[in-house]
């Protein structure tokens, strides 16, 4: 999914001082973003957040639905990241410049590695309910210019325990490893609980973690959580305690604190201002990013760069 904002901010993320040392329990309120104009699809964006820019290598999180809407995102570019598409309800058709064409449905994973440059489009049927999340994973410098790639995983491994089932999207959880390709140590899992159930999910204490409620109500490590805000848990936890008020579905994100500084602007992740300028120029001149066969509408133009050099914003706490 694209960041369709016409005046995107440049964001400095990562760095050794950017993760909270020790356990936290901080509710991060998202902001509403409308994709595709005033009548477009509404999403709640909780990463990057004013207070927490990243959770491990996870650097972008949009939660949309449940809503009867249609996603229609024309061809647009990405660099330096992976896009992770996960649905709770509905279906989305992915196309990219590599020739990939894949419908994703609930319980399946679409993973696109942008690397040095890729372009893609997404669309869903009209008049259908749609509910899901779009996430980005920042690539470390050693892999930022890797060749672009696309993966579809129709089935994923699960970790089960008393009161819960966790489907492992990315990385590893409790010894269960996703087949999806990763470039840094991380965790991504959807955890489901029945009404009234309590569960204890193992965590890696060297990771920082965050939890997002996708549906239902749940208490996470003593914090009541409903769909909307992201609960940032910091580092140092060896377990996640959950208690469902009613049937609940939560997204768990985690990872080794990202030690590198990156710049995010629009749909690009790069190392500095000059890289972002080059990415934009190459997209606007039709170089590097290829053509997406069958993409809806016309390719998405990049926003104008500000009239002064982009200066990364630091992390605020």
TrEMBL record:
**Ranges where the Pirin N-terminal domain occurs:** 41-137
Domain of life of the source: Bacteria
Q: Where is this region: Disordered?
A: 294-317
Database matches in InterPro entries: Pirin, Pirin_C_dom, Pirin_N_dom, RmlC-like_jellyroll, RmlC_Cupin_sf
Keyword check for Ion transport: no
Residues of the signal peptide: none
Report keywords, A-Z: Iron, Metal-binding
Name the cofactor(s).
Fe cation
Single GO MF descriptor: metal ion binding
UniProt record similarity statement: Belongs to the pirin family.
Q: What is this protein called?
A: Pirin
